[in-house]
Amino acid sequence: MGAFDRLVLFSEVHGTVLKDGKPVEGAELIEKVVWSDDENEIPQQHAVSDAKGAFSFPSIERKAGLLRLIPAQPTIQQTITIKYQGVEYTAWLHGKTSYNANTELDGKPLNLVCELTRQPDYEGKHYGICKAV
User: How many structural domains does the chain have?
Assistant: First the structure.
């Protein structure tokens, strides 16, 4: 990776919101990144689930600049929150320690199924109601 490559702070996400196994339309999803190397707050991304419960977020990236030349392990806190019918759900909580794409799931794309009736729990290195598929 060169000094002018992009730093991927949150890989592209595709997912589905379900309640009792049925698609949820109109759920609001908020994706947020807190990055230790950025003095400015990174704007949250918003999405709304469609009639099939589907949602997506583009990747959140920053210019690498000199950070690629300095050996250090990043500290990136990722969260996705779902708001539906007045209830807020912890969908995804993960600490990312790499600037490469798709390292959240060890190289696999972020394809999630978020079941609103599920209790938040750990799956691998992430926590929440969303499970990787």
Answer: 1
CA distance 83 to 24: 11
* Contact between residue 34 and residue 27 where contact means Cβ atoms under 8 Å apart: no
Sign of CA dihedral 103, 56, 34, 4: positive
Question: What's the rounded Cα separation, in Å, for the pair 111 and 30?
Answer: 16
Q: What are phi and psi of 57, to 5 degrees?
A: -130, 135
| For the chain, counts of helices (H) and of strands (E) | 0, 13
Q: Is residue 90 part of a domain?
A: yes
Q: Length of the chain in residues, anyone? A: 133
Its domain, for residue 128, covers 6-132
pLDDT digits (tens, 9 = 90+) for 12-29: 999 999 999 999 999 999
Query: The CATH number of the domain where 40 resides is what?
Result: 2.60.40.10
Read off the amino acid at residue 93: L
| pLDDT tens sequence across 49-78 | 999 999 999 999 988 766 556 666 788 999
DSSP states of 84-97? ETTEEEEEEEEEE-
Q: pTM of the prediction?
A: 0.90
